[in-house]
C-alpha cells in the first residue's frame, strides 16, 4: 500500500509554487525565454511512480513546458523542466511545430495531447497532436458532409498524419467561451451547449464507437 503521507511535504511545496517557479525562471533564463508570466494549467499526482508529479505551465506568448517532479535515491526532490516539444509522450509535436509559421500552443496536457494554432501557406490551421487520435479525426470526417444539419459549427478536417500522430483542422470563427460559462449567464450557456451536443444523437451519421457508463467511469479513473 502506498503511503501518500510521504508526499505531504512535496505536495505542500508544489501548492506554494515558489520552488517550481524559481526552477522555471532559471530554466527559462538559460534558454532565452521569458522568466515571468508562467502559469500552471495542469497537474497530476502519481504516487509510487517517478516522476510522482507531472505539471504543465503555459505562457501568454503561446509557450508551454512540462515539469516533472521525481524523488532521487537520496530522498530529495528533483525538478526537471522541458519544453512541450521535447515531451517524450508526444514525439510528433516538434515536427508539427516546425511545419507551422508562428505556432502557438493553445492547450497542452503532458504525455497525452497538445493543440497548436499556426499558419500554413493555405491559411490558419489548428493541429491536435494526440497518439491514438486517428479515430477522432475519422469521426470529424463523417460529420463534415452533414454539417449543415447540425446546430453548431465544426472545423473542417484537413487530414491525419500518422507519422506525427496529428489531426489537422480548419478554423471555426469565434472566441473561447470559458468566461461566458463562468459568468453570470453561465447556466444559459451550458444549456445551449448541452442542447447542441444532444443533437448528435439524432444526426444522420453512425459513430465509430459508443461508450456506456462503465467506459466513462474507467476514463474518469485514469484521469484522477
**Helical amount:** 25-40%
Order of H and E elements: HHEEEEHEEEHEEHHH
Strand order of the biggest β-sheet: 5-6-7-9-8
Strand content: 25-35%
Distance between the termini: 18 Å
**Cα gyration radius (Å):** 20 Å
Counting helices, strands and paired strands, the structural category is: alpha+beta
Largest sheet: 5 strands, antiparallel
List the total number of helices.
7
Number of strands: 9
Query: Given the C-alpha coordinates, what overall shape results?
Result: globular
Write the layout of secondary structure elements.
Layout: H1 8-16, H2 18-30, E1 39-45, E2 53-59, E3 63-71, E4 77-83, H3 93-99, E5 101-109, E6 113-120, E7 123-129, H4 134-143, E8 157-161, E9 166-169, H5 178-182, H6 186-198, H7 213-223
Antiparallel strand pairs: 1-2, 2-3, 3-4, 5-6, 6-7, 7-9, 8-9
What does this structure look like?
The chain is of the alpha+beta class. It has a domain at 1-86. It contains seven helices and nine strands. The strands form two sheets. Strands 5-6-7-9-8 form a five-stranded antiparallel sheet, with helices on both faces. The two termini are 18 Å apart. The relative contact order is 0.09.
